[in-house]
Amino acid sequence: AAPMLVLLATSLLLVQADLYLHSPPGSNNRNRERKDNRNNANRLFDSQNNGKGGYPWRGNPTFIGPDPLVYYVGSKLRVEWTVQHGCGQNPNLHCELVIQYACNDTLPAVRDGYPSRNQADGGDCWDSSNNNNQNGAPNVACNTQTTWAARRFRVNTNEGTNTIPTGRSNDFYMATDSANDGIEYGMHENYDFYRTCETTSRNTRLYTSDQKLKGNSAKYTRQNPNGGRRGLECPEERDYYPYWRPQPWRDIAVLVSNITYCQHYQETSQNVNDVGYCDCTSASNNNLCPISQAGCAAKGYTWRTRSALGGGAPECHYHPFSRNNHLGNTIQVDDDGEPTAESQPETAHFDWIIPEEAKNKQCVLRLRYNMSTKDYDNHAFAEPNTVSIGFDSSYNCPYVTVDTSCRDQNGNPDCNAASSGVEPACYSALTSSSVPLQNRPYVNLFEEDILSGDGFKLGLAINTHQTGRTFQDRSYVFEVQDKPPNYDGGSILNLGLRGRRGNIVQAYPAVEYDFTPSEAEVTEGNYIHIQFHGSDFNAAKNANNGEGWKFSDRTNMVEISDRHKNIPEYQTAETCSDSDLFTSIEMKKLFAWVQQDPTDSTGCLNIQNYDQNPNDQNTYKNCGKLNRAPNRFPQDHSQGLVKFSKSGTYYYMSTRNNNFSNRAQKAQIIVNPGDPGEDARVAEARNIGIAFAVVFALGFTGAGVFTVAKAKGWWCFESKGTPVAQGSHNII
Predict the structure, then answer these.
(1) Are 576 and 588 spatial neighbours (Cβ–Cβ below 8 Å)?
(2) Is the separation of the CB atoms in 732 and 638 below 8 Å?
(3) Which one of 56, 181, 328, 509 is most buried, by most CB atoms within 10 A?
């Protein structure tokens, strides 16, 4: 029997609207451009976001390759984001936020795109202290100790932001080509994945409204009717969830406005389901591969099964409440979606426990956010005790054309054989039982005869690309490793930096500098893994809008006695105690000076007074502004693993970025008395997942392929469970 394919994600077209990943920092398709707006919206994926969003690449700019942060298996990483259009139990819309990750086992040769110029090309690096040199000839050694240096791109010359080309060799995509060209292009999904997408039939049962799709492969969707390419992602897979063909992303969590979806999302996740597909040996753009087992057999191909990705069913619960037209804090909610008694506005977040499946791999985080209107009854099937296939292609509003051959072999009513100019009633009819399904329609709101002049139509600012719409953001590459040998048990909380250079208006829709989590909790005997990642590729901002070198962000961590204060505590070896955040003068210096060595032969300038020469902000040897701090601190990631053994509340700040009236970068760590295993047990309990009592009709075809029985897209979330903590004590 033919599979029952049901609309899952109602998708949409470009324009501005927004999902921004703040921690870990989302790229929004940026790389190393020192600009307020990104160079290329199509570099890696289709975000649908404003070009001003996102964070520049972070790490050592002289490397040929990544310089990623390292997270330990089993540690807790706070994922933070903002969504513009609201979510949670917001009565104005339906929403889902889907959090996923993938590593180089399913994304072979995943990379951000790294420069490869070396000495054989006529030089190592360019002097990056002035942006004008970025396009000049290499002129300094990469290991120079006299100025900031960055390696130059050789072939991907648009600051590493050109979209990866198609039709190259496998060595090019695996970044093993002898010319070393492939490594310069960012790549998440690989070319084989994209090639399969453009030679596989799209799901013709999906609702496309009145959009005229210009092809029948999976690269054409209602949100991508022209089949445009962004990186090597598959537009259909991007726009719909859960997806019915093999894809590389493991599910972490689905945060929703309607928890009756949760059982469906958990049961159909490719984490826990084998997925069937047609192995089409001779598929092409003109001979598309079928997506059903029956269609596969009819063409003489082989039906195969891809095993479940592993990792367990995703967590599913309410997204925190957020209002429309707002990229800001949310209200935390309980399991019923209601504000908690102690709730205070904070960034939407989810506390992710780094899984065993990611160990010894390089990975990327992916967030997708769907917002949908209820004008179409695409959520009826999610109601308790209701069985339905949702809002599918049978509800499409045909576009007008004189081409009578436009129907495909399945009779998909994507077009109308009427004469040009004859509008189907669904275009603009508004009645007690129907709504218009046309872009920006004019409707007769009252029972008046418009032709006789008794009334007029009102125009609706409704775009059928956008009545269900999916947005996306992704992180840069990070690395997952096992815990270091001298780790002696207990939970680990990751603590890092979020934000971008500039004042609040210049940084928007990114955010200003802050620690994350800014209020963290751990239990005595547990760890915090402190790492800071800095970029040299911000748009230039002067000292009033970002301290230190004008293109950079750096941070440090010094103790303050109270969060009301802005001057750190004076430190001596004699004043150190086990009641301090850091219990030795050596630790205090490590996190204050962030591995800038005043005894180094190249030295640090002793800047006496800012007012004497404000240009000292851009002086390479100004260690007081952290200008010589490494991009990734600490260089040995295990040095950032700090065990907290004494209960108390500890306050700290950044000397560089906390300048009171422009921005605050202050935070606190709460160490609670108790059993050090408690944090780990709570984290384990959170990973079990939540089952909700609602049954959905699912169609299965062949060996384990599932077909989607829901209509929507994704996104919106917040973390629930144990607050993250911070504490004091010795580095291991």
Answers:
(1) yes
(2) yes
(3) 56
- Which H/E stretch holds residue 478? strand 478-481
Between CA 319 and CA 316 the distance in angstroms is: 9
680: enclosing H helix or E strand: helix 678-686
Quick check: 21 and 79 in contact, CB under 8 A? yes
CB 88 within 8 A of CB 322: yes
Q: Strands 94-103 and 361-372: what pairing?
A: antiparallel
* Mean pLDDT of the region 681-705: 32
Question: Does 678 score more than 90 pLDDT?
Answer: no
H helix count then E strand count, the chain: 8, 30
CA–CA separation, 630 and 535 (whole Å):
10
Cβ(292)–Cβ(2) below 8 Å: yes
DSSP designation for 524: T
Instruction: Give me the phi and psi of 219, to 5 degrees please.
Output: -85, -5
Q: How far apart are CA 616 and CA 608, in angstroms?
A: 10
Burial 581-599 (b: 16+ CB within 10 A, else e): bbbeeebbebbbbbbbeee
CA–CA distance, 167 with 407 (Å, rounded to integer): 31
pLDDT tens, position by position, 643-652: 999 999 999 9
For residue 295, which amino acid is it? G
H helix runs in 361-458, sequence order: none
For residue 87 the two structure tokens come to: 């979510």
State whether residue 494 is helix, strand or coil.
strand
Please give the structure tokens belonging to residue 602. Answer: 């190249």
More confident residue, 507 or 133: 507
Are 354 and 74 in contact by the 8 Å Cβ rule? The answer is: yes
Tokens of 11: 């998708």
List Cα–Cα distances, 53 to 364, 400, 605, in angstroms. 18, 38, 35
**C-alpha pair distances (Å), 265 with each of 17, 39, 188, 243, 378:** 25, 36, 24, 11, 16
Q: What spatial distance separates the first Cα and last Cα of the chain, rounded to whole Å?
A: 60
Q: What's this model's pTM, rounded to 2 decimal places?
A: 0.88
d(CA 668, CA 430): 56
- The Cβ-side half-sphere exposure at 340, using a 13 Å CA radius, reads 18
Convert 1-56 into a string of H (helix), E (strand) and C (coil): CCCCCCCCCCCCCCCCCCEEEEECCECCCCCCCCCCCCCCCCCCCCCCCCCCCCCC
The alpha carbon torsion through 540, 543, 548, 549 (nearest 10 deg) reads 30
Q: Name which of 205, 4, 1 is nearest 709 in CA terms.
A: 4
SS3 track for 49-82: CCCCCCCCCCCCCCCCCCCCCEEECCCEEEEEEE
With tokens 């002129």, the residue in question is 139
Distance (Å, rounded) from C-alpha 510 to C-alpha 500? 7
- Cα dihedral across residues 301, 304, 309, 314: positive or negative: positive
Spatial contact of 702 and 374, defined as CB atoms under 8 Å apart? no
User: Side-chain half-sphere of 140: how many Cα atoms within 13 Å?
Assistant: 17
Q: 3-state class of 631 per DSSP?
A: coil
pLDDT digits (tens, 9 = 90+) for 353-377: 999 999 999 999 999 998 877 777 6
From 66, 54, 46, 189, select the one nearest 116 (Cα to Cα). 66
Tokens 């046309």 label which residue? Answer: 438
19-23 and 76-83 strand pairing:
antiparallel
| Interatomic CA distance for residues 103 and 275, integer angstroms | 19
Calpha distance 93→422 (Å, rounded): 33
Query: What span, in angstroms and rounded, lies between the C-alpha atoms of 410 and 202?
Result: 12
Mode of pairing for the β-strands spanning 250-256 and 315-318: parallel
DSSP state of 419: P
Strands 125-127 and 149-151 turn out to be antiparallel
Name the band, by pLDDT with cuts 50, 70 and 90, for residue 99. very high
Amino acid, res. 428: S
Token pair of 715 as six digits: 């996104």
Strand, helix or coil at 178?
coil
Structure tokens at 178: 């002898």
